[in-house]
Amino acid sequence: MISPPPNVLRTEATPALDLLTVPQVMVRLQLGRSAVYDLLRTRQLASITLGRARRIPTHALTDFIRTRLEQEAA
């Protein structure tokens, strides 16, 4: 049996980029649809568009929350 190359086995070297839908972000932030789309429109929350679908990387949501916490603390 042939084993795969070592770099194929190392998933931690390239972390998966998790993408969230708008409804998933709504649940996580406990906000309505319009509020989430306002955050996207004003670029407070980063997103990408895939065809007609809008997706929010989990790191963008984490960065948004971190930024808001820092603003509140200041």
Topology:
Layout: H1 6-9, E1 19-20, H2 22-29, H3 33-41, E2 48-50, E3 53-57, H4 58-73
Antiparallel strand pairs: 1-3, 2-3
Helix pairs in contact: 2-3
User: Approximately how much beta-strand content do the residues carry?
Assistant: 5-15%
What class do helices, strands and sheet pairing give?
alpha+beta
Characterize the overall form.
globular
Q: What strand line-up does the widest sheet have?
A: 1-3-2
What is the arithmetic mean of pLDDT? Answer: 87
User: What is the string of helix and strand elements?
Assistant: HEHHEEH
Radius of gyration: 17 Å
- Summarize the amount of helix as a percent range: 40-55%
Query: Quaternary state, please?
Result: single chain
Largest sheet: 3 strands, antiparallel
The poorly predicted ranges are: none
> Count the helices. How many?
4
**Could you give the count of β-strands?**
3
User: Cα distance, first to last residue?
Assistant: 60 Å
Q: Would you write up a description of this structure?
A:
This protein is of the alpha+beta class and 74 residues long. Strands 1-3-2 form a 3-stranded antiparallel beta sheet. The chain has 4 helices and 3 strands. The chain has helices at 6-9, 22-29, 33-41, 58-73, and strands at residues 19-20, 48-50, 53-57. It starts with 5 loop residues before the first helix and ends with a helix.
Key structural traits:
50% helix, 74 residues, alpha+beta, 3-stranded antiparallel beta sheet, 3 strands
